[in-house]
Amino acid sequence: MPDMSSPSVLAGLIGSGIQSSRTPSMHEQEGDAQGIRYLYRLIDLDALGLEASALPDLLTAAERMGFTGLNITFPCKQAVIPLLDELSEEALGIGAVNTVVLKGGKRIGHNTDCLGFAEGFRRGLPDVSRERVVQMGAGGAGAAVAHALLREQVGELTVFDVETEKAEALVDNLRATFGHNRARLGIDLKAAMQAAQGLVNTTPVGMAKLPGMPLPAELLRPELWVAEIIYFPLETELLKHAREIGCQALDGSRMAVFQAVKAFELFTGQEADAQRMQAHFASLGN
């Protein structure tokens, strides 16, 4: 256990509807294991009755209270960017931030979601066909996942979002980074699903606070693989239906763990034990 002479970290998570998050426990447990006095707090916009517009005040308050850093989740991963002093190369390329390090009077934005999803995808769906994939959602998490998918050799990614301008902006970003033929704006969901080998949901639909499915269940078929980034609950309605009809399925647990591994390292300067953090995550139940 850490003693009073141990290094100390004060971190937090800003987002909406995050009371079920396992992130605080993962960080604090790994801190204990490494002899670090680690305190991790939830800053839940819903619980506080706030909107994303409160971000400037929340960041200022965190700096004044001596926070080491903050994780950022829905709906703030893009809204936080104008409030930062620097962006890592990864965050700049993706256009979304999920980790902010507060150091030397500066706010430095990073993105560990891309690495987290890629690592989980490699481990959880290592041999799936990747010629054509449909992605639901083009927000902050969606941008990171899209970059990860194309880095993991998805041939063509078709992006859908209820806010078409978001999908257009993400597709433009992907084409500039990976080439014009690697990304498409989703227009006809039924046709895209019929042609796809895989489906990834990066929308918040399926979270405990937003139950449901991001697309009609009848568009799924057994030959598809399906991936989620939501991890509370682990078994979303989408994954439940996908498994029932025989799809290969990947829940959001691996992404949650591996993005936290990297965030821990950014906050502490110490390498995290990914296997230990995975085991702790699993011990927390569904």
UniProtKB/TrEMBL annotation:
Keyword Oxidoreductase: yes
Database matches in Gene3D superfamilies: Leucine Dehydrogenase, chain A, domain 1, NAD(P)-binding Rossmann-like Domain
InterPro entries: Aminoacid_DH-like_N_sf, NAD(P)-bd_dom_sf, SDH_C, Shikimate_DH-bd_N, Shikimate_DH_fam
Pathway: Metabolic intermediate biosynthesis; chorismate biosynthesis; chorismate from D-erythrose 4-phosphate and phosphoenolpyruvate: step 4/7
Signal peptide interval: none
CDD domains (UniProt xref): NAD_bind_Shikimate_DH (cd01065)
Active site: 77
Highest taxon listed in the record's lineage: Bacteria
Entries under Pfam families matching the protein: SDH_C (PF18317), Shikimate_dh_N (PF08501)
Transmembrane annotation, as ranges: none
Keyword Oxidoreductase attributed: yes
Keywords: Amino-acid biosynthesis, Aromatic amino acid biosynthesis, NADP, Oxidoreductase
Catalytic activity: shikimate + NADP(+) = 3-dehydroshikimate + NADPH + H(+)
Residues annotated as binding shikimate: 21-23, 73, 98, 113, 231, 259
EC number assigned by the record: 1.1.1.25
Domain Shikimate dehydrogenase substrate binding N-terminal, first and last residues per copy: 13-100
Domain SDH C-terminal residue range list: 252-278
Residues that bind NADP(+): 89, 137-141, 229, 252
Biological role stated in the UniProt entry: Involved in the biosynthesis of the chorismate, which leads to the biosynthesis of aromatic amino acids. Catalyzes the reversible NADPH linked reduction of 3-dehydroshikimate (DHSA) to yield shikimate (SA).
Subunit structure as annotated in this protein's UniProt entry: Homodimer.
Family: Belongs to the shikimate dehydrogenase family.
Matches recorded under NCBIfam families: PRK00258.3-3, PRK12549.1
Name of the protein described by the UniProt record: Shikimate dehydrogenase (NADP(+))
Organism: Pseudomonas asuensis
Gene symbol of the encoding locus: aroE
